[in-house]
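Sequence and structure are no longer studied apart. To make this concrete, we show below a single chain and its fold as tokens.
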Amino acid sequence: MLTATAAAIERTLSYFSLFQYPLTANEIWQLLWPGNGTSCPLSTVVFELEENNDLRNLIIKDGPFFQLASSEPLRSIREQRYRIATTKMRRAKRLASALTWLPWVEGVAVCNSLGYQNTRAKSDIDFFIITKPGTIWLTRFVTVGALTAVRQRPHGEHTPNALCLSFFVTGNSLNLAPLALPGGDPHFAYWIAQMTPLFGRGAIWKQFWDANRWVQVLLPNSSGYGDYPHSFYRQGKRTKPAGSVTRWLDRLAELFQRRRFPAPIREGLARKDSNVVASKEVLKFHTNDRRAAYRSAWKEHTNTFINHHVA
């Protein structure tokens, strides 16, 4: 029989096995999905990994990494993707540095697979951008327009190193809970916890983390981003709120972009779900959102495991 902590370790490794990503003991602790919102010390996780024979029969250790015994060897995959991510992160930093010149941009982060350095060579570089209220459409118009002009946006199914700006929020909508899937959204919680901020004005990333306390309930050992969360991070000075002219330009930018939405975005908006959202506070254009599929795959594996191993 497994203890509650050992079962949580298995659940966590099971989730990351979907992405071929083994974890260190410290990462298991930080990303632990206990299921009941209860935190535990790192020493408890280490003890279970080293001393719980029932758990040790279900996992393997390869160097500093742990993974499910039922998975293919993952250490070399993680190390290879880390090297790829390092190169992509330099490219992401250059864009983030360029965005600092826009006074409406409050924060820039990389997300999805690059957010936790588990990216493939053919993957896009995905960004999450926080803007000042009243400037979200104008910010998208300027940034996406510039990338389109220099042909750096994704096109086709896979565009290696393309810069994808598909998720913007304003400082009024830092809490992303309304965008979570009904019935639980583990992938979205991990997505938020594992993004890597590259630029921020003031304490915007602390404010963002504090606004998403629902993630901290699901991942009680996760510590957030900190004031300077990464060697690539750049701190910026606060700027003035958007004035009347800027807000007027924002309304024009919204009218222009709504008229030019491609069919996948129009179809997504018609479904009125949280995959595709276009408002004055949130622009989210995840037309191929796979959160529900990841949730189903994880639940199926976890339920099968619990039925066989946990009383």
Summary: The chain has two domains: 4-73, 83-289. The domain at 4-73 is CATH 1.10.10 (Arc Repressor Mutant, subunit A).
